[in-house]
Amino acid sequence: MNEWSSGYVSDIGYTFGYYRELNPLQVKLAMLNVGLEYPDVGTACELGFGQGLGLNLHAAASDIKWTGTDFNPAQASFAQDLAKISGSGLETSDESFEDYLNRPDLPNYDYIGLHGIWSWVSDENRKIIVEFIRRKLRVGGILYISYNTLPGWATFAPVRHLMTEHASVLGAEGTGTVSRVDEALKFTDRLFKTNPLFSRANTSVVERLKKVEEQDRHYLAHEYFNKDWHPMHFATMAEWLAPAKLEYACSAEYLSHIDAINLSEEQQKFLNEVPDVNFRESVRDFMVNQQFRKDYWVKGKRRMPELERAEELRKQRVVLIVNRADIKLEVTGSIGKADLTESIYVPILDLLESNMIMSIGEIESALAGKSIQFTQILQAVMVLAGASHLAAVNSEESIKRARKSTEKVNSHLMKVARSNGDSSYLASPVTGGGIAVDRFKQLFILAIHNGKKTPQEWSDFAWQILSVQGVKLIIDGKTIETDEENIALLLNKATEFESKNLKLLKALQIVL
User: Fold this and answer.
1) Residue 372: which residues within 8 A CB-CB, separation 6 or more?
2) Could you give the residue ranges of the DSSP H alpha helices within 353-501?
3) CA–CA separation, 452 vs 457, rounded Å?
4) 406 phi and psi angles, rounded to 5 deg
């Protein structure tokens, strides 16, 4: 283990994920929904940015001045190169949190984000993070932070400890982290097959282990096998952040705002009787068996007058970010699946189907006479956004300014997609962040940029790239062996891309 890594897994890189909660555009609607003032974000910082893909997409797709640090120099180097290509002005570093805290040249921030960091660092580093927030977050500024939560981890925490002990005690150092992860999983599986009293007393543990075994080993190494791993109660988090003068604002997960899909009527009634905001969150975590929280905290919590709140909500612009035909009228919350009311959701989706940007006020006006109330429209927007069907939209000025940077970063990522499928996201100046676009779609867009005009030409272009590398398509876990079958499947994908995705990606200004 490298000394500079302080016990954090560093011999394998983090995954190239994208986390939309880090997008500052997400903050406004979440804060307005709970009636709180929100800042105009001009400066932002991400601490522990991993590979820096999301950080780069946010920097390229907005006119926010971003900075960030990640201790892993390989990851910081990748992020730095991508920033240079995009010309976004993003400044990245591989400094430790302590060294970054003592930088005299950093600005004060309107927004600071940490995703997947807090639970995996030592108390010493947590103190440094809090001090950074105390010094550098402006009054009225927002902190986004995510962390593993108790009580949801109470039963699986001993299993995680067992696996890391196996990797440390019985794992061979020279075999690498991935190998030690595999061996620890196999050992734990064998243990549970002996039917120990622990698994009989905690029946959900075996099923959860099965799901863990299906996950990417690089992700598992970072999630479970670090030296430091500390799930935390919400109240404990509040105590940690108190020296930075932060107060809990709301969940960054929009679906968590909708009690009807997460709590029974009895639970809602019980929870409403709890007067203290923070204690209410602790109680709610027991009700939903919370395992992971994604929260916004604010330095200087202020309620917004209802008239101003309603005006700002009506100004909020939104756009669909998936194909209308792919949206099912159902949503999953903590208490299971719930059907969405057709008389409310179908008219709204019909309005947005053409991928036109609309404000919530414009939706309200267009639906006048259909007996759909403003509160119902707002809840529908929160549900659709929470289900990743819809996103908040940048200002027209920001879209224009960001277009050049997003074009550059997307062009580079699509060229990288010729060799691998590590990145499944591209930047949209419309949404101010990343949009899911898999490797095949990226190759089809690259074909369009190279003057190819038809699905046949797009699939031929993609096959020329893939076949040279010996890459074959996989359907339902089965590798497609013959060239003819691979070409036919690629053509099907290209045809579907033209009919279902191309118009949408043009509306999001990913395809120009």
Assistant:
1) 343, 344, 347, 348
2) 360-366, 374-386, 396-416, 439-449, 455-468, 483-496
3) 6
4) -65, -35
Single-letter amino acid, residue 152:
G
Phi, psi at 393, each rounded to 5°: -120, 140
Q: What's the CA gap between 367 and 346, in Å, rounded?
A: 11
Instruction: Centre a 10 Å sphere on the Cβ of residue 287 and count the other Cβ atoms it contains.
Output: 17
Name residue, tokens 């001090």.
Answer: 131
pLDDT for the residue numbered 174: 55
pLDDT at 173: 62
Residue 287 tokens, joined:
């009700």
Taking only the tens place, the pLDDT of each residue in 379-438 is 999 999 999 999 999 999 999 999 999 999 999 999 999 998 888 999 999 999 999 999
> Which pair of tokens denotes residue 385?
């956004």
Listed residue (450, 447, 422, 434) closest to 498, CA to CA: 447
pLDDT for 355 beyond 90: no
CB 394 within 8 Å of CB 25: yes
Tokens 């909660």 locate to 21
Q: How far, rounded to the nearest angstrom, does the alpha carbon of residue 181 sit from its chain's CA centroid?
A: 25
Listing DSSP states for 125-167 in one string gives HHHHHHHHHHHHEEEEEEEEEEEEBTTTTTTTHHHHHHHHHHH
Measuring CA to CA, which residue among 306, 343, 342, 307 is closest to residue 327? 342
- Token pair, residue 355, equals 């991928």
456-459 — which CB contacts under 8 Å span 24+ positions?
A: 456/491, 456/494, 458/494, 458/497, 458/498, 459/487, 459/490, 459/491, 459/493, 459/494
Instruction: Give per-residue pLDDT as tens, 44-58.
Output: 999 999 899 999 999
Whether pLDDT at 279 is above 90: yes
pLDDT tens per residue across span 470-501: 777 777 777 777 888 888 889 999 999 999 99
- Six-digit token pair at 61? 């797709």
Tokens of 417: 């997609």
Angle at 82 between CA 74 and CA 410, to 5 degrees: 135
